[in-house]
Each structure stands twice: as C-alpha cells, then as structure tokens.
Amino acid sequence: xxxxxxxxxxxxxxxxxxxxxxxxxxxxxxxxxxxxxxxxxxxxxxxxxxxxxxxxxxxxxxxxxxxxxxxxxxxxxxxxxxxxxxxxxxxxxxxxxxxxxxxxxxxxxxxxxxxxxxxxxxxxxxxxxxxxxxxxxxxxxxxxxxxxxxxxxxxxxxxxxxxxxxxxxxxxxxxxxxxxxxxxxxxxxxxxxx
Length: 194
Description:
Elements: H1 3-16, H2 21-35, H3 38-48, H4 52-57, H5 68-79, H6 93-116, H7 127-143, H8 148-154, H9 172-177, H10 187-190
Helix pairs in contact: 2-3, 3-5
C-alpha cells in the first residue's frame, strides 16, 4: 500500500474519531498552563468561559513583549486554537479567509505597482536604488536568460488535479486526452511559442 493511499485512509479514520470534550479541555488547559504567560492565562479564561470569539479576534503584536521567550510563548498561546474547529464562533471562517486573501493580494498588487514605477517614488534614492539594483542582478543571476524553447521542452504535467480534472483522473495519459486548460493570465506566454 502506498504512503499516499495509507495517509488518506488514516485521515478518513480521524474524521470519524472524536475526542471526549472533557479530555480536549484538559489538554488545552495543560498546554496553555505549560506556556505559563499572561497571554496563555487569558486564552484559557476565554476558552473556559465560552468567549471563543474573543480568542479568534486576538491580535498578536511582538513589540508588546520584552524577550524572545515572551514572544514565543505569547504567540504559541495566541495561535493554539486558531484552527480549532471546536470553538463557537459568530463569524464565517470561509468569509474571513477570503477577506484575508483579498487583503494580502491587494498588498502584493500595491508592491508590484510600486516596483513598476520606482522613479516616481521620492524615497527611491541612494541606498534604496543600490539595494533594488542588487536584488535585480541577483535574481537575474539565479534565473539566467529566458529561453522559450527550453521552457517549452521542460513543460510537463503536474502530479495533481486542475480546475478541469479531478485528482482521481489526474494521470499523465488522462490529462493528455482531456482539455487541461490554462489560466487567462498565462495565455500571453504561449502566443510566441505557438
């Protein structure tokens, strides 16, 4: 039996298994108690008193702590239950995830826009120019020249599903027989090759 097949069976078994809520609470308490910091006490009190939304809304600010150990323990306490499905929350986790995704996509777009128009930035002087140019040189050195023929000859099927093919049908031969599709933003890359 392959590891992948074994792993999927193991995970299926886990979804059927439920830990007794008293044992669960004792484990959470023991972990938070072992961290022994003000944040872990706060998280435990919120959990114990069913203030689960407050746990989900906790923000972590490293600058509020005086040492690496304090940062480490407070961060661990803050994030311990962040993926725990046993919290009673008033928020839709999928919606929150989409909002965060959009927020960070917007930040990346802003950064990309800034890099595309650096000459308009009044802070783009002296050491900033040198650092930016050094980064560009290093990336060019690592990537080398783009060769369309090498790119085309190196292309191959990935190991998994796509937007058009389910994972169970994701063998190379089946992918070859079906339309695999590409993203709209990838299309311009293939016009010069075809």
